[in-house]
Every structure is written in C-alpha cells, then in structure tokens.
Amino acid sequence: MTQPVCLSELRDRYDVLYCDVWGVIRDGRRLLPAAVDALIRFRQSGGFVCLVSNSPQRARGLAAHLDQMGMPGGSIDAIVTSGDAIHAELAKRMPGRALRIGPDDDDALYEGLDIRFTGLADADFISCTGPDDYWNGKPEDYRGVLEAALERDLDLVCANPDIVVQSGDRLVYCAGAIARLYTQMGGRSIVAGKPHRPIYELARARVEASGRSVDLKRVLAIGDGPETDIAGAMRIGIDAVFIADGIHAADLNSDSLDSETVADMLDDYGVQARWWAPKLVWSA
C-alpha cells in the first residue's frame, strides 16, 4: 500500500469510478464539498463517475435525495444501488407475501411489485431494508422475530448489505447487520449489493450504456467499507481506494494515520486496497 493519494494523482490510471456515497461524498447528514469537487473534476477531465451505493433506495430516489442535499449538476454520470439490484430478486418472488422490516421511507423499493405485507405467520419471506427505527434500531431488537422465521425456514431478502453507515458524528445500523445476525443463527440471507456481483453488473451495464467499453484495469472503486467496498472490488478484480475517515474514523486516529496502520486494519478484515486516503479530495 502506498502513501495516501489524491484523486488527481490517479487520473491517468483510471477512466471509470465506482464511488460509494455514505462515508465518502456525504457523512449521512451533509455532502462533503471536497469529495463532490473531486468527482466533478474527474468528470471534467474525461472520466466517468458511477455512484455505487448500498442504499435500499432505487437510483432515482437516491438521485432525488442527493439533489435535495445540494448535489451540483454535472457531478456524476450514473447511479446504481443495492435497491436496484435487489429489486430483481424481489420480482422473482412475486406475487408474494412478506414480513417487512424497515422504515416507511423505503416504500419506493416496492413500487411495481405485487407484494403484500403480512405478519410472520403468513409470510413467504422477510424483506429487510434496515431497522424500523433508523437512528436507534439494533440487530438484537429482531432476534425473536428471526428465531421464529428460522423455524419456518424463511429467506431474508436484504436490501442494504451495509452493517453500519456514518450519519453525522455517529454510526447507525443497516439491514446488513440484521441479515448477518440471521445468517449467524443459521438462516438464509439473500443479498445483491456490495460486495456481491449483481450490483457491479448493473454498474458495468450503466457504463457501457454510455458508449464506453469497460476495461477492469481502468476502473477504480472508492469506499470506506472493508467488508463491502473493498471486498467487492477485490471480488470483481478492480483496484480500490480505501477512505479512512468514514465508518472507521474512530478506529483510525486521523492525526497519526499511516499506510501501515491502514493496511493492518484492512488485513483484520481479510482485504487489501491498492490505495488509501483520509478523505476523497482532488488534490492536496
């Protein structure tokens, strides 16, 4: 692993970015101007920027949300989300009855599906977009429900594989934490977002739809999640930049960060990144 990098230093190596959202270009409450500027400059230099997010929202919903937050026009070329990727899995189960876990804000995921939400006794599967209480929900809140689901041998369809995301100065649990608990209990969790291939297949399709060919040696992933962004990049064979000041900011002291410390932390997760940076910026 090299010393920390700025995006401008990598421009000649890569033509396409698969860039994470939470923890990279926004902290959960606000956009990070320097990171957004880096994406704009990459595009202005001829690069293609695809946001690849584990959000359970569909791409259009995430785009609208970022627009409301003040995302400048011309920042990105495309968006793909875990919600997009899991929608196809949900469609396979239609018509279907599901026990729903997740806030009402995620209603748009189910648009166009012949789905009926029921109690556990009548459900064909569980559909999980995250804890019902976005800010305070925990995986253990659902242990009783998951134990009953396990007895019925139900699948849990997970719309967001992230374990936690950064929201301002705190971390909040995501659907991935509930899915992980269910898997640990012996259940089946169905996932399509990062680090799994379906979301990257969607990203590749969006790039190719623009008329570009995709050379994986010229694609760079950017993210703060070792188990999602970095593991996913390794799985599909592309380089990655690990952003240290994201969900692991508390574990990595930003005042004394060095390459060895970052590499050791990633090694704890069984992953490696070719590059790292405290934050996503265009130039120092």
Can you lay out the helices and strands and say which pair or pack?
Blueprint: H1 7-10, E1 16-19, H2 33-44, E2 48-53, H3 59-69, E3 78-81, H4 82-92, E4 96-101, E5 115-117, E6 125-128, H5 143-151, E7 155-158, E8 164-167, E9 170-173, H6 175-184, E10 188-191, H7 197-209, E11 219-223, H8 226-236, E12 239-243, H9 259-268, E13 275-277
Parallel strand pairs: 1-2, 1-11, 2-3, 4-5, 4-6, 6-7, 7-10, 11-12, 12-13
Antiparallel strand pairs: 8-9
Written account of the structure:
This protein has helices at 7-10, 33-44, 59-69, 82-92, 143-151, 175-184, 197-209, 226-236, 259-268, and strands spanning 16-19, 48-53, 78-81, 96-101, 115-117, 125-128, 155-158, 164-167, 170-173, 188-191, 219-223, 239-243, 275-277. With 284 residues, the chain is of the alpha/beta class. The strands form 3 sheets. Strands 3-2-1-11-12-13 form a 6-stranded parallel β-sheet. 46% of the residues are buried.
Offer a concise description of the structure.
Helix content is 32%, strand content 20%.
Largest sheet descriptor: 6 strands, parallel
The span between the termini is: 19 Å
Assess the beta-strand content as a share of residues. 15-25%
Task: Give average pLDDT, whole number.
Answer: 95
Helix content: 25-40%
Q: What overall geometry do the principal axes of the alpha carbons give?
A: globular
Briefly note the structural class of the backbone: alpha/beta
